[in-house]
Task: structure prediction
Amino acid sequence: MKKELELIIQPENIFNYEFIRRAAAKEIRKDINEITHVSILKRSIDARRKNPVYRIQAVVYINEKPAEETFGFDFKNVENGKRVIIVGFGPAGMFAALRFLELGIKPIILERGKDVRSRRRDLRTIQQFGIVNPDSNYCFGEGGAGTYSDGKLYTRSTKRGDVKRILNLLVYHGAQSEILIDSHPHIGSNVLPKVVSNIRETILNHGGEIHFNSRVTDLIVEQSRIRGVIVNDEKEFIADAVILSVGHSARDIYYLLDKKGILIEAKPFALGVRIEHPQNLIDSIQYHAKKRHPNLPAASYSLACQVDDKGVYSFCMCPGGIIVPASTAPGELVLNGMSLSRRDSPFANSGLVVSVDESDWEEYKNAGVFAGLEFQKSIEIAAFEAGGKTQKAPAQRVVDFLKGRVSDSLPPTSYIPGAVSYDLNEIFPERIKKSLREALLIFNKKMPGFISAEAQILAAETRTSSPLRIPRDKTTLRHLQIEGLYPAGEGAGYAGGIVSAAIDGEKIADAIAGYLI
Result:
């Protein structure tokens, strides 16, 4: 016999299995000796009351043992299978490739960047010397942007596909099993590279191909059907279908599609700043105490409001994290956030962004479909120039931003290249800075202390999602014009994070299998 129930557990007992077992016995009024096992399904923090608690969803086994749960993956040898090119080895491309192994189809992965180990050197170069490698950075390389951006796995896309399957695939490849039960799971940028490396080995060991330093420079299209691609302006790869899973920063692919007359379209996105607080300040606000209990994680937050009918919201919140330079080309400054698995940095940071659409990029309408992208670029260039034409970030205390004055000094920051005091009101158009100012006041009411002398904002956070979409048929998932071409993931405009991109990649793989087999 088994029974599902919810238990409220104090932080000091959350890792005490025997305490949880006794609590379960008490809840269902059974003798402790009858409780043979308690399996935790979901774990979350309830910080609404003065003293935060954990809420756990559990299955209690009474006088019986649970069946051993296995999540097997039937990876086949695909050496002689039909061939599909995957452009980009981020979550969408990676999980499409894994799904192809199960379907008997050979993935041929073309990644413009380097493997995770080699990629680290280029991250160090941009951090320490401000030198951006356009093909190897925080956005491009094995694993995509998520590899060195915390590995947040929370998603609202539960209706799009099997989230549990994605998480189990990550655990199978070395992620910590806690991601299966935490309500807001994350892996950490120190653990993800090993997971990504293990996924690479699975693909190679079953007959797939992975080619690094392989930037797609042209598409081979004949009679409205894609036949393959050209890499680095010289080498041809021919296949039965092509997946474009290039990520939201592969601007050269958008330009290539437009040049070849392949339909792309503008879409709304969001941009703004990165806001940073001392982590202990966020802890004190969220947990209602001066000191966080050691069994509670670094506190996070999620904030949203409407200003003049446009959304303003926190994005990619990194408790116990650091801000990193996510630029993908010289002459621009883009910020992002990341955390290690322990989330033990003394800082908390988050994107604070404003929704933008065609009304915001009217000035760039002569750029046609690229008007939104040009607007995005203009903010990145302005931030770069404000930072002294380096990867140093222009920054301002929040209290000074609200008053429109340059900060006399800046608080400490996690951003390794450093910060330069600057009035960020000069970087953004009037509607953007007005929305940010009003939203900050609203968020301070929701989280008293959010506005403080210790809080600062840094510019610019612009890569929340792609400013373009590569349209596809809702049923076949193929491009509307080109047979055999399958746009996927964030770069195509169909995902917004690791899990949703992974789900989209699997959907594309299944669609291609139906097309080829």
User: Anything to note?
Assistant: The first strand starts at residue 2 and ends at 9. The mean pLDDT is 95.
